[in-house]
Structure formats: structure tokens, C-alpha cells
């Protein structure tokens, strides 16, 4: 059975059981402060489990894209080495929110596996939670009794808390679970060892394929459990593992989920899969990782140096260095797999097909960049090895290579072994441990339980229509972080405060008590469909009616920048073309940042046209036309622009200014004239095919023009207030160019005059014409002089030093090519080692190299030691 059919049959089956079939949510989470990625099938439905929202249907099924590479669920280092762990994987799931429970979940799971997929029941095992004394939970007798109706009791196994009790996090909904395991070993192997002894023992052919979670408890901050008022079902079946079972193979990578990618990797690299274990691991790593990276980019997450972007960059770099080390690929090639992936998965996930060009371009640029970094790392590793006493390289130095250049330990060890060296692993691990502890300490937080004051089902957001409101505090909790110390999260029955989302920052303001006490709202965020207000203090009387007041200026300026972002998007699509798509944005009171897809730099004429387009819409004073809670499809049919990577509900809000219409939940001006003026500050590349514009509006533009005027007046004063400032500056440039030419000629003459004097200073040492001295010339003149001397004198070995300033020193080494090539002299090695004496470093070719440093005081010693290289 093909993988596409396996996925389709799952969804068809649960549709027949009255489940709504919903599309996969984006793998990258934009508005969840607790998670960077969707790491399980239930993550998009957290708000339903927590009771903060009500689904349209209490029964849902889907195939969810998931990523597990960071935090509690981290499979990264296992990927490639075994046959069933992945970074990105599909989770087939069916969900019940307060509807059916254990009986139906177990019955339907068994029906699907044994009657629809025709899996032999004699190769299946199930596990049931055995209970936990510390939690005060008993063995799940209810699940056990239900399973007895379908499978023999000797195949029902007890599972401990680690394997058979699922938790959303340290707090929140949780419950016992039943796992379904499959034994796909040969008959001979089964005869030797009973499958039940291999369940949950990491055997590659005895694996879990489906987990049925029975959500019936809520975990409190103190660790205690309380019964949930409504019981839920949360199941997750690994699509790749299910495909392995149904396609009769022994590895996920032998299914048609991966074989098209593996065949393409073999074609591109010339490697053969299945002949060498190290090569096989590398190919599996690449096939797995390209899926994770491609889907993340398609969902709007570009590789970067922090947060979710760093995770994606790390995954891709792991693939690149496995190709570099084990497939001998020194050029980018992984980007070529994007087309295969789009063809293979585009029907189920249209975003991967539509974003294929972007995915390919971004991956190619990242590959090229990291390969250059690997080259740098190799040079530095050579230096480390050259300066190592003995045969054991410092683990601290190896960790520096890892930390600064992403140079992994196993690659460092491989290269070191080839040269006869070992790495001090203990020192490396100590550095790694210290880094992790620093990271954990920086992100450590404590979150208390919600203290509920008023039972309130729906927290109403009223901030589109008003900036003040009388509110009641419904619940609060205390949070403590190293960065912010103690803070409180407050939830009200209604709020005018806009929570961070859609690129727009959360509102600030204050809460006023009847007695006049004020508590400042430092930030506003949304978590699991609840709007949370961050404060440093709690109100004295928690049961009073408070006045919630949003900062008028903060909101007004944020709205101005948000509306300008919509007009900018329209301008770019009009002037550059319909291919332009928003790829990210930041809207705050001070400025706006807009990332968009485009294949080349936006030139000055185009930027001027974009700026003028936006300002023309501002002058037209277009009114805001807002539609709330309209059907998603109706909005799209009316021309609203939807953004890739965003999660939209069945009902949406549209914002229209003239011909600009977008789906948007942010705050906006009432008419475009309120923006006042739009000014682009910068335009540049973020990644291959992605550009970024930063711009300002409103008050910031006034400040900008005032600053420009101040600078202009200052320039005029420096130029003695000429009538024509441009002409005056042009005249100065011409004069400067003429003087520069004169200086260059004087330096050339000076070098010519020095040449004869330097020839007289040459000493013959071991058949080498040697000179090490300090000169007063610029780098270009030194280079020209040395090459002139080299053209006139054989067997030349010269080291020049110069000190351009009190804090700068420079060494230049020239060696005749016959000495470098025939006798092994190396100018690069000379300057690297002598450069340490001037507190610097450098490199170059074996016949010409330079080094820079910060210690001119080290020049005499460097010149003195230069002779050691030929003695």
C-alpha cells in the first residue's frame, strides 16, 4: 500500500466515525510562547484541552506535521543511526474533546489496524498504565478490560509512568495511555525471543506505532493530580512507522516516504545506499533533515542565529557535514532535493509545492555559507594541531571550534585521527556541560497554578473598539524567570489590551483600582487562546472592578505602522509583481519591519516608487473597512490575501484600505491619513530570495526629518555655509582624489628609493637571501616592493613589519617560489606563528602571507625570531 493511500485511508476511516478532517497546522508556531514547533499532534488543540475554546466539532482527525529537535522531545542525535526516529514526522491522530472516551478509542484503533489495514493481530502488543504510587494513581483497569475483548491477555503488558502516562508539560492536562506495538521480526527471530520482552526496549523491529492517550487529570504546580471535568481522547500514530509495517520493510527509510529522496541523493552524490554503514547513516540523515528544513521554510521559518531559526540552521548544518565527511560532497547539493520533496508530498501538503523555489534557494545559500565555515574551521583546526604539544589536542580548543564555528566533535576527531592525534573528550564534554547549564539557568522559570477568582468561559477582547474598560480579574498566577524576576499573569473577563500576534507587539498600559492605585501592564500575550497581562504586582483587592487603560500613544503608533505594513505589501505586489509574498513582519510603535519573497535587490527607483505608492494611499485618506467573523472562504473569494505559515480559523477578520485587503487580527488606523507619512529606512537581503524593508511612519518620520535637517545644518557649517552644498562637497571629493594620487605616487617613489637600501641589508643564510626589518610603508606599497625584489633576487626570504598606529601592527612575509615549492618553506605558517607575538594572526599562500595584530611592542621579537625559520 502506497504511503499516500495509507494516509487517505486513515482520514477516510475517521470521517466515517463522524470526525471533522482538518488540515495540518503549521509546523512552526508563531504565537505560542511555550513552544517553538508543533512537537506532537495535540499541540494545535491545546486550547480545547485546557477548556479555553470550544471546537466546532468535538471529534477531529488529521495528519499533523511535527518536529522534535529541542527541549523535552529531542530525537536529533538518534536520527540516521536507527531506522525509526525522525526530526520531522507526520502524526496521524483522532481527537475527542469531552465526547467519546476509552471504549470507542480502543475499539476504533483495533478496527482500523486489523480490519482496514489488515495487520495480523498476532504481531501486535498493547500496553496499559500500571499506576504510580507517588502520584496516587492506580492501574488502568478500565483500559485493560476493554483490551481483553480484542487481544489475548498475554499480549496486554503493564507500562510504567515513563512509557504509559502522557503529560502536556510540567503542568496541565494529562492521563494514562495505551500504546500499540508491532513486532515485524522474522519467524525465526520470534521463535528465539518472545516479542513481549522487547516492547519498549528500543528494538528496531519491535516498535510503538500508536499511542492512545486518555486525558483525565490536570497536573497542578505542586505535582498533584485532580480529575478533569471533561475527559478527552488524544491519539497519535507515527505515519512513517505505519508505512514500514504496511509495506513489509524493516526500516522507515525503506518505505516510499523516503526512497524517492534516497534515490535522488544516490544519483547526485554517486553513493550507493546499503553497502557501507557510514554512508547509509549520512544518506538517512540528509533524507530526514531536508524534510524538516524544507517544511519549516515553507511554513515561514528561515534559518537564523537564534530561536526557532537556529534550530532549523542546526538541522541543515548536521546534514551538510554528514555529506561533507562521509559522502565527500564539498559543494551544495541538498537544495536540489526540494523538487523531489515537492513532487512527492505536494498533494497532501500544498505549501511544499508552492514554496519549492524559495525552499531551494534558502537551502542552497545556507549550504554554501556553512561549507565556507567548514573551510575556516579546517584551517583553524590545522593551527590547533600544529601548536599542540604531544598527541592529545585540548578539548577546550575543540569546544571553541564547535561553539564558534559549529564544528562538531566527531568531525574534529576524524580529522585529528588522520593526523595521528586524539581529542581530550573529557575537556570537550565539560565545556558542553557548562554551556548547557548556562542556557538552562538563563531560561529557567517557575510557573504557579492559576488561582481562579471567577469562573468565566470566554475572555472577550474589546480592544478593536475601545482603549479603556471596566474589568474583573478572573484568574492569575505567579511566574518567576531569571531575566524578569517575579511577575504576575492576569486574566480579565474582558480586555482592551491587544495580545502579541501577527507580527504586532502586545499593548502596554495600566490597571487602575477604585482607590487610584495603579499597576502597570508591561506586556500582553496570548497563550492557548487566553489573553495574559504581565505585571510586577498584584492589585491589593483582587475582587474589585478595575479600569483597564491601554497606552493611547503605544497603540496609536503601533496601529499606524501595522496599517502601513498592509499598504507596503500592496505596493510591493503592484511594483515588483504578484510573486511577492509576506514572509514575516514586526510591528511596534517605533518602526515596522517587512520580509518578503523577491529574487533580486530592490533598486533605488523601485524603492522610491514603493514609497510614493504608500504615501499616495495615505494622502487619499482611505477609510478602514473591517469585517469581523466572516467565513474564511468568503474572505478569500472577496480577494483577501492569506499568509503562508499562519493558522486561520473557520471565521476570520479582514482589513481593507482601498484595494488592499488582508486577513488580519491586528489593530489599525481609522483612515490612512492617520499614518501621516511613510519613509523607508533600509532594504536588504535576509536569505536567498527573501528581502527585508524597514520603515517608519508618523512621529518617527517627524523625528527623522528633524535629524536630517540638523545634520544638513552641521554639514553646511563645516563647509562655511556655501550657497550650493552639493557643489561644495563635489569639489572637496575632487580635491581629495587628486591628493590621494599624489600620496600614492610619493609612496611609490619612497619604495623605489628604499629598494636599493634594502638590497644592501640582505644576508645570505644557508643559501637563502634573508632580511627581517621594520619599514614605514602602506600594505600595498609593501606588497609591490616585495614582488619587485622577488623578481630581481633568487632564494629570497623577507619579513617586513610596520606599525600604522600605536595599537596596530602588521607582518608581511615573502618567500621565493622555488624555496616554497622545493624546500617546503611556508609564508602562511611564518605569519601565523609570529603573529602571536603582536597579539594577532593571519595567513595566506606559501610564498606570500600577512598577519595583523594589536601589539606593535611585539615587532622586535617577531623580527628576531624570523631567522629561526631558515637557520
Explained architecture:
- With 871 residues, this protein is α+β, with helices and mostly antiparallel strands.
- Helices cover 39% and strands 26% of the residues.
- The chain contains 25 helices and 37 strands.
- The strands form 8 sheets. Strands 1, 2, 5, 6, 7, 8, 9, 10 and 11 form a 9-stranded mixed sheet that branches.
- A hairpin with a 5-residue loop joins strand 10 (206-219) and strand 11 (225-238).
- Helix 8 (259-269) crosses helix 9 (277-298), helix 8 packs antiparallel against helix 11 (337-345) and helix 9 (277-298) packs antiparallel against helix 10.
- It is globular and about 100 Å long.
- The chain starts with a helix and ends in a 5-residue tail after the last helix.
- The mean pLDDT is 91.
Report the span from N to C terminus.
Answer: 75 Å
What radius of gyration results from the CA coordinates?
A: 33 Å
Oligomer: single chain
- The total beta strand count reads 37
Instruction: Tell me the helix content.
Output: 25-40%
Strand content: 25-35%
| Unreliable stretches | none
Overall shape: it is globular
Major sheet description = 9 strands, mixed
Mean pLDDT figure: 91
Please state the structural category: alpha+beta
What's the short version?
The chain is an alpha+beta fold.
Considering the chains and any ligands shown, give keywords for the structure.
871 residues; alpha+beta; 9-stranded antiparallel sheet; 26% strand
